[in-house]
Design a protein that fits this description.
By secondary structure, this protein is mainly β. The protein is about 5% helix and about 45% strand.
Length: about 550
């Protein structure tokens, strides 16, 4: 896919713009490990005179490369950005014969992958892939090459290969470009054979070899990539001739990811959305992954965007990390779906706000770490919200949202109370939470919208994959302000308490010199409940109690 044109044309008279694909140069960011693109996007943003236009195309796997026509001069009026985005991972299928590797093999959708690892298989050719094409063919346990046929159908070819006992179906595409197709009719089922598709050129070469007696193929199967490269590159006011960037540990950031689902039987997904400086919206699509797994991510760092990562467990949990920029060469960790989970907001989610006399709140109740987290299991988890002005209840809601009308434009004190409960079959932790905010609000000036100053407790307590902390664990509690909050003050030191009997009795924890706190759990205790109370210098307060915040080991 290529971008052709000239972003620096002045339309003050007749002009000629030459769209010449033969002059296009490839846009690429290389990786030090073997990768294939699972997501690609090419875009540009043009702004001038107070107006802005952003155009893009997401290609996923439909195209194997991105290109652009270079422009000799830099943009001198308005502003222009060229952007390219990739997500890359370990190739799902690597195929090689005695003559070398086949670089354009794409594993198809709704198939049963070969077990992870290297496999050496007999290689045979089965023409159009119908049952009759397998007669007299030793296909059991083999990799079978067929030509895609609209007359036969993709699902029919997979079924015939499975009946013949094939382990891998390699399909020669019947058109230029790449296709990512379903090989099972039922969206809840998988084809019982692995399927890879090759471009016509590579497929013809492999089909020719498959006809030879005794042909074999070496297949490297990866069922889940142990690494991911989230890459973004922008060029400001230019489209230079050299659009290839070499990615390495020196100019990328490393993020060690851990996904720990409360329910290991469910699937899930994740994606890192990019938020460029020239636009107020991020683009992307979540992708499937095993949610009880570990992965090493390498992330671009050129500073022209922020990253906002999101992950979910099917019909259970959805978490949203804050927007982040990474330093080149840096290393950090990210742990998903782990306690302590509680109501929490960050800069990558809708902020509590006031417009005129309208007060609006959206407070998901199950975020861990610095992530917003919402339950998607509405039978086993409940949440209620209530907003008060003084002793008068203005509104009450279930779920995550409550809205109300302020009784006056003048500054008045308000109180927001959020309660959550969830069943132990959902998770043994955060069985109940109670969070109460107090804040002062007045009508915004100039008919604008103000972010409300709700203080956010951020718990940092290390646990194992089962959600258990050591009995003498040290931990931190940060008190954070929402970005752009109106009426905020400087956060004061928090008061932190712990309970080892589900909240029947509480012990105040003394802060250490580094402002950390330490548990002192008795041997008989299985859980610790936590409570924090804090205020800022403007008088805004928060009190948060998390029953059975974590387990103890």
């Amino acid at each position: 896919m290529a971008l052709l044109g000239d972003p620096n044309v002045t339309l003050d008279r007749d002009r000629t713009v030459t769209l010449d694909a033969s002059k296009a140069t490839r846009i690429e960011m290389t990786t030090p490990q073997p990768t294939e693109a699972t997501y690609q996007r090419l875009e540009y943003n043009r702004s001038m005179g107070g107006a802005s236009w952003r155009d893009f195309m997401e290609t996923q796997t439909a195209y194997d490369s991105l290109w652009a026509q270079p422009v000799a001069s830099k943009v001198t009026h308005g502003d222009f950005y060229l952007g390219a985005r990739w997500r890359k991972g370990k190739p799902g299928l690597g195929v090689a014969t005695r003559t070398g590797e086949f670089s354009d093999v794409l594993r198809q959708n709704r198939v049963t992958p070969l077990p992870a690892g290297r496999h050496r298989l007999p290689l045979v050719y089965a023409g159009d892939g119908t049952d009759s094409a397998y007669r007299g063919l030793l296909a059991r346990g083999a990799a079978v090459v067929v030509r895609r046929s609209a007359d036969v159908g993709d699902v029919a070819q997979a079924l015939a290969a499975a009946r013949a006992g094939a382990r891998l179906l390699l399909v020669v595409n019947d058109r230029i470009g790449r296709q990512y197709l379903d090989y099972a009719d039922d969206p809840t089922q998988l084809a019982s054979v692995d399927v890879g598709m090759l471009s016509p050129d590579e497929g013809d070469r492999l089909a020719h070899q498959a006809r030879a007696r005794g042909a074999t193929v070496t297949v490297e199967s990866s069922t889940s990539s142990p690494y991911v490269y989230d890459l973004m590159r922008t060029w400001h006011n230019e489209i230079p001739r050299d659009l290839v960037v070499k990615g390495s540990a020196r100019n990328l950031a490393r993020v060690d990811e851990t996904f720990v689902s409360p329910d290991p039987t469910r699937g899930g997904g994740e994606f890192r959305f990019d938020w460029p400086t020239y636009s107020a919206w991020g683009i992307g699509m979540t992708m499937r992954l095993p949610v009880n797994s570990e992965r090493t991510d390498w992330v671009s760092t050129d500073g022209a965007y922020q990253w906002g990562q999101e992950a979910y467990v099917d019909s259970l949990l959805y978490e949203i990390a804050p927007r982040t920029s990474y330093r080149p060469g840096s290393s950090q960790t990210q742990e998903w779906f782990k306690p302590v989970t509680r109501p929490y907001l960050n800069d990558n989610y809708r902020a509590p706000a006031r417009s005129g006399d309208r007060l609006s709140f959206d407070i998901p109740g199950y975020g861990g770490g610095a992530r917003v987290g919402m339950s998607m299991d509405y039978d086993r988890s409940k949440e209620t919200l209530a907003l008060y002005q003084g002793t008068t209840q203005l509104a009450q809601g279930t779920g995550t949202i409550v809205n109300a009308t302020a009784p006056s434009a003048s500054p008045l004190p308000y109180r927001l109370v959020v309660h959550t409960t969830r069943d132990a079959s959902f998770s043994p932790y955060s069985s109940a939470t109670a969070t109460e905010w107090t804040f002062t609000s007045r009508a915004p000036r100039d008919d604008g919208q103000d972010v409300l100053p709700l203080l956010q407790p951020n718990w940092t307590l290390a646990t194992d994959k089962a959600g258990r902390a050591t009995r003498d664990a040290r931990f931190a509690v940060g008190i954070e302000q929402l970005e752009g909050a109106v009426g905020e003050g400087k956060a004061c030191a928090p008061r932190v308490e712990a309970s080892y009997d589900d909240g029947h009795s509480w012990q105040r924890l003394a802060p250490a010199r580094d402002h950390s706190f330490q548990l002192d759990a008795p041997r008989r205790a299985d859980f610790v409940s936590l409570r924090v109370s804090a205020r800022d210098t403007a008088g805004n307060t928060v009190t948060q109690t998390v029953t059975r915040a974590v387990g103890l080991k």
